[in-house]
Amino acid sequence: MADSKTVSVGGRIPGLDLAVPRMLRPSQFPSRLSFPAPAKPPLRFRVLAMAVKRSPKRLKYSAPRFTKEGGLVYVEADPSGEDIWKLDPIVELLKQGAVGVIPTDTVYAIVCDLKSPSAIERLRRYYFSPSFEGVLSLLVALALDLPLSILCRSLRDIDTYTTGFPRGDGQGHASIFRAVKHCLPGPYTFILTASKELPKRCMRYGTPTAKYAARKDVGVRIPDDAICREILEKLDAPLISTSVKGLKENEWLLDPVAIADAYGPEGLDFIVDGGVRVADPSTVVDMTRITPVVVRQGKVTELLQ
Predict the structure, then answer these.
(1) What one-character-per-residue DSSP string does 52-98 give?
(2) What are the angstrom distances between the C-alpha of 215 and each of 194, 202, 304?
(3) Which domains does the chain carry?
């Protein structure tokens, strides 16, 4: 099944000096380039070859729309993380200030380097260009009008960019750090007070047509997803993120090829396809006060019981 290890040749991403290959599904294009594979190819290649047999609707979204000038880098990765070598170009793009979509243990997220001011502004703004009209404009507005969250590698990242979790106060309120540690990695977003290490651009929210508001808190996550964690480890840094939301409040875009069809023409740099997700968002808990408050009940609730 050699075809599952080939990619079509891509172009150059607007605004970046880095020319990279565009990784698309091999059956769609005649020109191909062999991609270096590990000495012992993982068995997942057999599964990927079978996965090409999609429904007509999915085939519609994965058609030759990725051939646009400038290119969208599209990488189909094994959800188990067995083919992590495919993620190297994505990590290089993130280091150069790219904005793209990756899977998490809940829904897909739009991400960029939290230390790249231009990337953060792109994440917030470039979808609002005048050419981005109609339903999708409102869709993205709903997603980006929310505070951003940090995808962290470990508790050390959380300690760096926040003041940490509440401790006991000596008045009957015990420290909840042990419970939190038990639940991570996992599908939780904890809202904590931001530290001085967090860039100011990560503590503002709003839209280009409305004044940015300052915040003193930020959401933090340690996703239990092999692809996401491998990207964070290879990058050796956390990422700033927001979920890829749908038109309604509790609606998300879950199919990566549908996300590519919607966002690719608007300048998105890359997408990592980890398979179709289930609409189970993270459980959001506000821990900026002594008694935690559940802001949104999501995928799991064991911390609350």
Answers:
(1) T---HHHHHHTSGGGGSTT--EEEE--TTSTTGGGGHHHHHHHHTT-
(2) 8, 9, 26
(3) 2-304 (3.90.870.10)
Segment holding 177, helix H or strand E? helix 177-183
Rounded Cα distance, 269 and 66, in Å: 11
Listed in sequence order, the residues at least 6 apart from 46 whose beta carbon sits closer than 8 Å to its beta carbon are 1
Cβ-in-10-Å burial (0-12, 13-18, 19+) of 13 comes to: buried
- Compute the radius of gyration of the chain from its Cα atoms: 20
Q: End-to-end CA distance of the chain: give it in Å, rounded.
A: 48
> pTM of the entire structure?
0.69
Q: Tens digits of per-residue pLDDT, 63-113?
A: 333 333 347 899 999 998 888 899 999 999 999 999 999 999 999 999 999
- What is the DSSP track for 93-143? HHHTT--EEE--SSS-EEEEETT-HHHHHHHHHGGGSTT--THHHHHHHHH
pLDDT tens, 3-24? 444 444 445 545 545 444 455 4
Q: Amino acid identity of 142?
A: L
Check: CB of residue 285 under 8 Å from CB of residue 182.
no
Residue 153 to residue 223: CA distance in whole angstroms: 8
Angle 226-235/88-95 helices, nearest 10 degrees?
A: 50
* Cβ–Cβ < 8 Å for 243, 281: yes
Task: Identify the three-state secondary structure at position 190.
Answer: strand
User: Are 260 and 274 a contacting pair, CB within 8 Å?
Assistant: no
Q: Torsion-angle region of residue 81: left (phi > 0), alpha (psi -120 to 50) or beta? A: left
Tokens of residue 59, six digits:
């085939």
